[in-house]
Amino acid sequence: MAATLPATAACAEVGGQMLALVAELFPICRSITGDGLRQTLRRIGREIPLEIHEVPSGTRAFDWTVPKEWNIRDAYVRNARGERVIDFQASNLHVLNYSVPVRRRMTLAELRPHLYTVPEQPDWVPYRTSYYEERWGFCLAHRDLVALPAGEYDVCIDATLADGHLSYGECYLPGERRDEVLISCHCCHPSLANDNLSGIAVATELARRLADAPLRHSYRFLFIPGTIGSLVWLATHEAGASRIRHGLVLSCLGDGGAFTYKQSRRGDAPIDRAAAHVLGHAGAAARIVQFSPYGYDERQYCSPGFDLPVGRLTRTPNGEYPEYHTSADDLGLVQPASLAESLAACLEIVEILEQDRRYVSLNPKGEPQLGRRGLYGSVGGRVAPKETEAALLWVLSLSDGRHGLLDIAERAALPFAVVQQAAEALHTHGLLRPESKGEG
Ligand code: ZN
After folding, report:
1. Given pLDDT bands bounded at 50, 70 and 90, which one contains residue 438?
2. Residue 186 shares a structural domain with residue 212
3. How far is the CA of 325 from the centre of ligand 1 (A)?
4. Are residues 40 and 186 in the same domain?
5. Claim to verify: residue 127 and residue 268 sit in the same structural domain
6. What's the whole-model pTM score?
7. Residues with beta carbon < 5 A to ion ligand 1?
């Protein structure tokens, strides 16, 4: 395939389109189950071919169980004058996500243990959940909490927690081979823009583009509720999981921070090398960090019983930006240029996974005369002539059937695309043949 990177103008446009999807999904009250999650999946399904699966409550997934389905219609705390002092209609973050229903009149002192704030950020509403313990609560700005007068309040959470289903979305794009690339993102957070919606928007656009491209690998995109969604998928696809050759968890891709790639548990998988290569040539302050058993669904994919080669691409990672899991992770934090750059990085990584292969030089004794064959001018117009020449010589030197194009790009410190174009030109001129056992 030729997933050529969008030019700058197209970049701004696609960034705007992804931000529009983020903005459209932002108001929906999502959780790890329920209609908000379904509504989100149906919206994604208008962009890409998405199969929506429904897994019944009570289904076992290794050490876990699919919880009851949660749905919420309204929630508030009302003062004696009937005014809503905390209002779910103003922001769905005001409710402790997965709260059990409650309808009661109580004093502030009785209500106080159910109220959550971030005192260090007194204007922000925190995002809190209680999936596996039946509780109820409200989240609010600390400034609003301290302003609440003593007295009686009417408390209402109009929600249901009942047997139902966990929903997740799956988009499978078959390629030449059954070997798979897994792209996974969580879609269980309510109104948070960078954490969950940016990953959803980039994954959706990536799937939309790959759906139109000839692919060597098959691609599987999962849009799942965090933790329980990946556990359920793994538990129901144990055999299929062994076909995953490369994988990426996508999240937090819309803020202005530099990229952070978190390695797979293996640390040296081809996806780890491909991501490091792309970020290394993206300049700036990109970081590579080692695997750790906390974070997003990479925890499950990389658990020792699976040990899948799945890394994680973010910009500023979860927990490392002050707005994380608060109402300040809003549409203002997500920039179209950041989304576009994140998509471009994903496309470049995919390009390496698709194009990496081994060649054998058909002229291994001494260097072939490249000038005579017009090869120096034959490689991509935008590439500096010195880079072209270096790439041609490196490809010829290392194409002994043992080194792939990514090996060569790493060793030559050249962008993969330049090395790949050089190999293509050499192949066209009859100086290379693909190694039949070449594996990428
Ligand atoms: Zn989160």
Report:
1. very low
2. yes
3. 6
4. yes
5. no
6. 0.94
7. 195
Q: Determine the distance separating the centroid of ligand 1 and the alpha carbon of 17, expressed in angstroms.
A: 23
Q: How high is the pLDDT of residue 440? A: 46
Q: Is 247 exposed, middle or buried (0-12, 13-18, 19+ CB in 10 A)?
A: buried
Please tell me the predicted confidence (pLDDT) of residue 153.
98
CA–centroid distance, 14 to ligand 1, in Å, is 25
The domain boundary, picked from 127, 162, 197, lies at 162
- Looking at the structure, tell me whether residues 55 and 180 fall in a common domain: yes
Domain housing 141: 70-162
Ligand 1 centre from 195 Cα, in Å? 5
> What confidence tier does 386 reach under pLDDT thresholds 50, 70, 90?
confident
Burial 77-112 (b: 16+ CB within 10 A, else e): bbbeeeebbbbbeebbbbbbbbbbebeeeeebeebe
Query: Do residues 342 and 234 both lie within one domain?
Result: yes
Give 196 Cα–ligand 1 centroid separation in angstroms. Answer: 7
Q: Is it the case that residue 5 has pLDDT exceeding 50?
A: no
- Domain end: 326, 354, 382, which one? 354
In 3D, which of 269, 215, 262 has the Cα closest to residue 244?
Answer: 269
312 plus 297 within the same structural domain = yes
Contact 52, 41 (CB under 8 A): yes
CA 332 to ligand 1 center in whole angstroms:
17
Instruction: Give 404 Cα–ligand 1 centroid separation in angstroms.
Output: 37
**Residue 277 and residue 421 share a domain:** no
